[in-house]
Amino acid sequence: MKIALLQIAPTGSLSGNKEKGVEACRKAKELDADITLFPEMWSNGYRIYDRPAEVWTAEAIQPDSDFVKDFGKLASELEMAIGITYLEACETGPRNSLALFDRHGKRVIDYAKVHTCDFSVECALTPGNDFYVTELDTKNGTVKVGAMICYDREFPESARILMLKGAEIVLVPNACPMEINRLSQLRGRAYENMMGIATCNYPASVPDCNGHSSAYDGVAYLPKLEGSRDMCILETGEEEGVFIAEFDLEMMRDYRSREVHGNAFRKPKKYELLIEERIEAPFVREKHREI
User: Fold this and answer.
1) pTM exceeding the 0.85 threshold for the entire prediction
2) Would you say 149 and 40 are in contact if contact means Cβ atoms under 8 Å apart?
């Protein structure tokens, strides 16, 4: 299963991003990709930190806009699934969204970022309501795919819920510096849930980003190896490009059938505190007071 990570820089306009995105998708198809993933909020290049909120929120587009629908048509033309990201118009404020089209051009996932960065300018966004998994039809067979976006990865519950819903691979659009700790989060999410995670970031030419898109297959142990193996199957550099992460689904499924992580020995009744509505921690309240 080949996933193309489009580590590309935005152009500064919706039309320019569409044109460049189409070109990158065609390149991914040339590389025999089954799924192609954009970085976070590709429609406006995640330009939300250097402009007033009323300016960037006005750039939100409808889910059925030509920008989004044309990537669905492209998915059908190329017979390749495409995960396009965009700033979605919403009555309660825009959403940070991903639309996943299968190789027939059918829209199979509409996901909005659940864990918006409410400590910053993303407080102007409307959070999503749930996490979704779909059975994606590809030329190499079906695979159960889910999605989370950037800051979602910092909450282990995001990946855990996707695992419980059956996700084999999780797509993660991203827009931030991917340093050792954030990369370690992704590695941890893959390890503890025995699932693949593919993250697409912007290149270093984009402010506050540094490339290092990555993919982890979640397979920590193999019978023929002593000790553990490196689950990282791809980590890019900082440069712009289209990068292919190749997942061995047969190996991943065999691993899941016999290993002890994920859902094997969980004790859900011990986790009731996790679903209580909690007052924010004191240090968070103080930080908000300063802002």
Assistant:
1) yes
2) yes
